[in-house]
Specification:
Blueprint (H helix, E strand, L loop, with lengths): L1 H13 L10 E6 L9 E4 L5 E8 L5 H4 L4 E4 H14 L12 E4 L9 E7 L9 E4 L10 E6 L1
Parallel strand pairs: 1-3, 2-8
Antiparallel strand pairs: 3-6, 4-5, 4-7, 7-8
Length: 149
């Protein structure tokens, strides 16, 4: 039985289908319809760092339909999003706010992309984290769970 299991693992690795391997680089898309294409991002606790790349697949400019990607503890999500609205343009985010775990730099418009790399070692496996876009009103629809397992 162990030989069969080992062969299946090796075959999956060879074919690029190893479900135990975790990619520490994640891509998420935002569009002109106030949507992220993912409602969850799951990363392995074996990743010391993770890189999130946000791609704006829409056509509208950043001042009209800008997007960013912000990560906080779920308990901090609404307070940070509200503070961002008060902070105003161009980023709608106080980047000095210590409740922010990671955020892409600035707002991006259609056809643009931005990335953020941050350390996972201080975050809890199974912790309660939320990602969102801080453009005015977007955080209501453009949010999701960030899962470390």
């Amino acid at each position: 039985m162990r030989k069969i299991f080992a062969i299946l693992i090796l075959a999956g690795s060879f074919l690029g289908q190893n479900s135990w391997a975790q990619d520490c680089n994640q891509v998420i898309e935002g569009n002109d319809l106030l949507q992220f294409n993912l409602s969850e991002i799951t990363v392995s606790s074996s990743c010391e760092e993770v890189t999130i790349t946000l791609k704006h697949v829409g056509a509208l400019p950043a001042n009209v339909m800008g997007h960013n990607w912000v990560l906080t503890k779920t308990t901090d999500y609404m307070p940070v999003a509200s503070a961002g609205q008060a902070f105003g343009p161009p980023g709608y985010l106080d980047t000095s706010d210590e409740r922010i775990i990671g955020a892409t730099p600035g707002m991006i418009g259609g056809g643009e992309e931005a990335s953020i790399t941050f350390n996972l070692t201080s975050l809890e496996v199974g912790g309660d984290y939320t990602f969102f876009c801080s453009f005015p009103g977007h955080y209501v629809l453009m949010n999701g769970k960030f899962i470390i397992q």
